Amino acid sequence: MAAKGQPKTGGRQKGTPNRATADVRALAQDYGPDAIKTLAELMEKATSEQARVAAARELLDRAYGKAAQQLAVDATVRGMSLAEELANLNENDLRE
User: Fold this and answer.
1) 56: DSSP letter
2) Does the residue 6 lie in any domain?
3) What is the CA radius of gyration of the chain?
4) What is the DSSP letter of 75?
5) For residue range 12-38, what is the model confidence (pLDDT) as tens digits?
6) Which domain holds residue 73?
């Protein structure tokens, strides 16, 4: 383990794919067209509305990506808003 503040050494270089994951992904991609066809058939013909919606959602996620999720955050730190706390931190940094 590298000392604190020192760069990590060893292991895969950044951007190098994991061979085990790549092998599994390559095998699974062979089934991609059939899986999409099955999802489309389920979306059109399933008797359960829940199954049809799930299949439609999966197809849309693959075609257009998953929809962005918004998070609402209301943070209070030591009785102050996050903006007030950040302003105090900035003031303290300037003094030091």
Assistant:
1) H
2) no
3) 25
4) -
5) 777 777 777 888 888 888 999 999 999
6) 19-95
Whether residue 75 contacts residue 82, with contact meaning beta carbons closer than 8 Å, is answered with yes
User: Which tokens go with 78?
Assistant: 């030591």
The count of structural domains within the chain is 1
Mean pLDDT of the chain: 81
| 10 in a structural domain | no
Which residue from 52, 32, 53, 29 is spatially nearest to 42, judged by alpha carbons?
A: 52
Q: What is the DSSP string of 11-31?
A: SPPTTPPPHHHHHHHHHHHTT
Residue type, position 41, single letter: E
pLDDT at 1 (0 to 100): 57
pTM of the model: 0.50
Per-residue burial over 28-53, b = 16 or more CB atoms within 10 Å of its CB, e = otherwise: eeeeeeeeeeebeebbeeeeeeeeee
Does residue 11 lie within any of the structural domains? no
